[in-house]
Amino acid sequence: MKNLCADLFVALIFTLGLAFAMSTMQDASAASNDLPQTAGEYFDDSVITTAVKSNILGEKGLSSLSINVETKDGVVTLSGKIDTAAHSDLAVRMAKKVNGVNGVVNNLIVDAAAHQSVGEYVDDASITAAVKANILKEKGLSTLNISVETKDNVVTLSGKTDSPEHSRLAARVAKRVNGVKAVVNKLKE
């Protein structure tokens, strides 16, 4: 079912890309003297761009939302922020697989904090919610003065507590939550 949805989504993107290219070709024929490319070249570049985006979308670990794809005369330019050099290399390989690609310019910036999948975001959000709920249940602690943030399953506590004991207690409560890898305790008394 998951593969069927992904295939349908890729087909939809491809179809929309073709429709856009066709409508743009009609507009281009009216003002063809202003275009640096012929309508055929523009159409080919639009098809290449759509195919590259589809390849990127279909590849686990890559997000077509964070990778911009532009094509001019068959040369694909990839730009945006991506989380690892390996994913950057993978995006280039996915672009090179497309028929008609004459070259790939890799302008991707590797930034580990730039990409977080929906699943990772949901996991972090649910950990944050669980930590806040458990702190609220704990006698003597209040979530009004304690801020909880989670990134990659690492919980950061900040704010103010009444005592060093309450600060340590809040950290222990956070560590007990399922999925927490580590707790950074920045609480002040």
From TrEMBL:
SMART domains according to UniProt: BON
Keyword Methyltransferase: no
Signal peptide: 1-21
Annotated InterPro entries: BON_dom, Lipoprotein_DolP, Transpt-assoc_nodulatn_dom_bac
Any single Pfam family the record assigns to this protein: BON
Domain BON: from-to ranges: 44-112, 123-189
Domain of life: Bacteria
Keywords of the record: Signal
Entries under PANTHER family matching the protein: BON DOMAIN-CONTAINING PROTEIN
Name this protein carries in UniProt: BON domain-containing protein
Protein's organism: Desulfovibrio desulfuricans
